[in-house]
Amino acid sequence: MIAKWRCLPFLLAFLVILSCVKSGLGATDIWVSHIAFQDGWKTGLSLYYSGPETSASFNLTRFDDSGNPLEAPAMLDAANNTWTELPDSSLAYNGSARIQSEHSLLVKVSYRYEGSRSLCEFYLTAETRQEWILPNTVLPWLDWTGIALVNPHDVPATLIFEAWKHGVKAAVQSTILEGGSRYVNMSEAIWSSLAYRDFDTAIIRASVPIPAPICITGDYLQERHVFFTAQPKPQNDRALCLINGTLIDGTGREPVSDSVVVISEGKILASGRRGDVAIPEQSEILDVKGGTILPGFVNVHVHNAFKESSLRAWAQQGVTTVRDVGAAEPPSSAFAFRDSVRSNPFCARLVAAGPLVTVPGGYPIVPNNFPALAVTSPEDAGRKTQDLIGQGADLIKISLEAGLGLPTLTRQEVQSIVEAAHGRRVPVAAHATTSGFFRLALEAGVDDAAHSAVDYLPDEVIERMVQAGMYLIPTLTAQRKAGETLRNLRRFVSAGGKVALGNDGGYLAGLEVGMPIAEIEAMQEAGMSPMQIIVAATRNAAEVCRLDGELGTIEFGKRADILVVTGNPLENPRALLDISSVIHGGVVIR
Ligand SMILES: [Zn+2]
């Protein structure tokens, strides 16, 4: 965690310093200053007006790095309710811009990294508030998080930071921000005492109104950075409200009957019992007529997911995220495909390992004739792991299989892979089907077991898996409930082990590409309650994907990935097949 902080103050100074000053009622005077770019980054400045006029005029002045105007101030127009890109704003330059208007405007600064990942934009506003709420403060694949604030007043401001996780306050800290200061990184004051996965929402309260905080998160090893603020996007759409349903929010909490779920801009704005949740005026109402509202399901063990038809099939059945743990495709095309479908709500979101990592002649290359990445030594394993992550792997999947006399990864090779992956905050999943390899995976620090052991899993291994928080993904149907698989699952759950849903769909014939109901019924047969299975398919599966800051539960700030069924899956899981609606990223896709 130490390295997490080292570069943040530097990065802040290097990349962007902003100031926003409100210069009069309804008027805007926004400075975007000291924009500096790393190689490979491009930027754009766009402006948004929403108000009573058909358009708003604004005055744009750009300055060079030394503060000299690049040209005479230009009067320009922005159409109402439309993003207007500022001229030449795609130009990467080191300089500033000043935007003045009689109207209240919102300015979007977007960065684009010319790599496989590109997501980074933030919003500037002249608005000041005493309270800012920053949902999704942490993105799962990122390394650190920082929050920058400015106090435009002459007097010092007292600030209170709250860190929240799953709707529970995890930490509180107060600090003083001197007056007249530029944006400074305020985050270490609180975040340094917390692991980066210990919170998902930040609330900042100030003694005086302050401009929107800027969150900066990134992975400095991979030079990926994301900036965003608490300022919501302009409300182009009406809120969507689900009413008249029983809410099972994915956390394992008791169901809430007669619930309301409010969705706005693709995210959960509020959820709870009717009467406790305000329904925004002019909302679109979706009456679920006594059905059950659940988070979109996440299947963390699938294959052959690099096909739009499969991703559509999953999404239509309410499985809005899938994790592919072994691709036959070359990693570059697999990851490019993953990124290309990210914005299509009709496709399940794809989390991808790329190829399985094994040894020459090992599983699954030899018995299954399935392409995989072969490593020949611990050094080679570490290097190839780094390379795979550099290409965009969300996780590393290793093969531990010695049946049929196959060669497999050595303990040193597994350790080298885990070390390399964890150094980049990327999890490792292991194919293992016998207790000996469960033990090896556990001792090497593997994050999840992608199958069940068919032989008796010793109590001591179960206990250590529980202590380590190592996930079990049973794939009971793929293993035909063989040997001890059902009993091992029952014992693992009674010991307090964490289970996530995965069925190996897309690989063996007969395993559903859609709602994996056979797997769900097998989990029930092993003794899991319907509520435990739902949590395994939502919150736990999101955690396995490192997406729990973003999805997996129906809570404030999470992505609106929602499955609505007509019956009650707590009475009978087969109710999960009677789907009345699917919402993905706030878009009703069924
Ligand atoms: Zn598999």
* Strand elements, count: 34
Describe the global form: globular
Class from secondary-structure proportions:
alpha+beta
Supply the number of structural domains: 3
Kindly state the mean pLDDT as a whole number? 81
Please give the largest β-sheet. Answer: 8 strands, mixed
Tell me the Rg in angstroms. 25 Å
How many helical stretches? 14
CATH hierarchy class name of the largest domain: Alpha Beta
Q: State the assembly state of the protein chains.
A: single chain
Helix fraction bin: 10-25%
Outline the secondary-structure elements.
Layout lengths: L1 H5 L1 H8 L1 E5 L6 E8 L5 E9 L5 E9 L10 E6 L3 E3 L9 E7 L3 E9 L7 E5 L2 E8 L8 E6 L7 E9 L2 E10 L6 E2 L2 H4 L9 E11 L2 E6 L4 E6 L10 E8 L8 E9 L2 E7 L10 E4 L4 E4 L1 E6 L5 H9 L2 E6 L6 H10 L8 E4 L4 E2 L6 H4 L4 E2 L3 H14 L4 E4 L11 H13 L4 E4 L3 H10 L3 E2 L9 H10 L2 E2 L12 H10 L22 H9 L4 H8 L1 H6 L17 E4 L13 E6 L2 E2 L2
Parallel strand pairs: 18-21, 18-22, 23-24, 24-25, 26-27, 28-29, 29-30, 30-31
Antiparallel strand pairs: 1-2, 2-7, 3-6, 3-8, 4-5, 4-7, 8-9, 10-15, 11-14, 11-16, 12-13, 12-15, 16-17, 18-19, 19-20, 22-32, 32-33, 33-34
Helix pairs in contact: 7-8, 9-10
Zinc ion binds next to loops.
